[in-house]
Amino acid sequence: MLGRWSGKEIGFSCYGNPEREEKRTTDRDMVSEGRLQNPDDVAFDSTMTDFSANHREVLRIVLRGDRLRVNNRVATLFFLSDRVLAFGFRERVGGSFGEYYWRIESDPRGLLAIEHVAYHQGALSSTSRQDLRPR
């Protein structure tokens, strides 16, 4: 994850039940950077820009010591190896409940893939895959 990356995010998002509602596809440009600030502090920042909708979204992952945070929320680490990092978190906002999961994998060719799945009230609400190349 260390270094500078760029690429595309492709996926879909919907509200409620994806079988009954129209899915909106996403196709956003991404710029990312992973940096080691000190031996116990790794940060990975991604900015996703949808130029057609004039929308920008930021994903910030920070590993500080043994604590993993995603956009300032404490996340649970599910799996960590030389090539794969999998994590997620759950949150309740008012009467709503959301679950968010990520899987980041580097491949032998030096590419980075980020897969993201989100559930709202127990129903699938969005998925995406971000394919990144070194810049």
Structural commentary:
The protein is mostly beta strands and 135 residues long. The chain has one domain (3-134): Lipocalin (Beta Barrel), CATH 2.40.128. Helix content is 0%, strand content 74%. It is built from no helices and ten strands. A ten-stranded antiparallel β-barrel has the order 1-2-3-4-5-6-7-8-9-10. The chain is globular, with a radius of gyration of 15 Å. It starts with a strand and ends with a strand.
The largest sheet is: 10 strands, antiparallel, barrel
The overall number of domains is 1
Return Rg in Å.
15 Å
Q: How much of the polypeptide forms β-strand, as a percent range?
A: over 45%
Question: What fold name goes in the CATH topology slot?
Answer: Lipocalin
How far apart the termini lie comes to 12 Å
Determine and state the CATH class.
Mainly Beta
Q: State the helix count.
A: 0
Low-confidence stretches: none
Q: What number is the mean pLDDT?
A: 81
Helix content class: under 10%
Output the CATH homologous superfamily: Calycin beta-barrel core domain
CATH architecture, by name, is: Beta Barrel
Shape: globular
Order of helices and strands: EEEEEEEEEE
Strand order of the largest sheet: 1-2-3-4-5-6-7-8-9-10
The count of DSSP E runs of length 2 or more, i.e. the number of strands, is 10
Structural class: mainly beta
Write a brief caption for the model:
The protein has 135 residues and is mainly beta.
Question: Characteristics of this structure?
Answer:
single chain; mainly beta; Lipocalin; 0% helix; 135 residues; ten-stranded antiparallel barrel
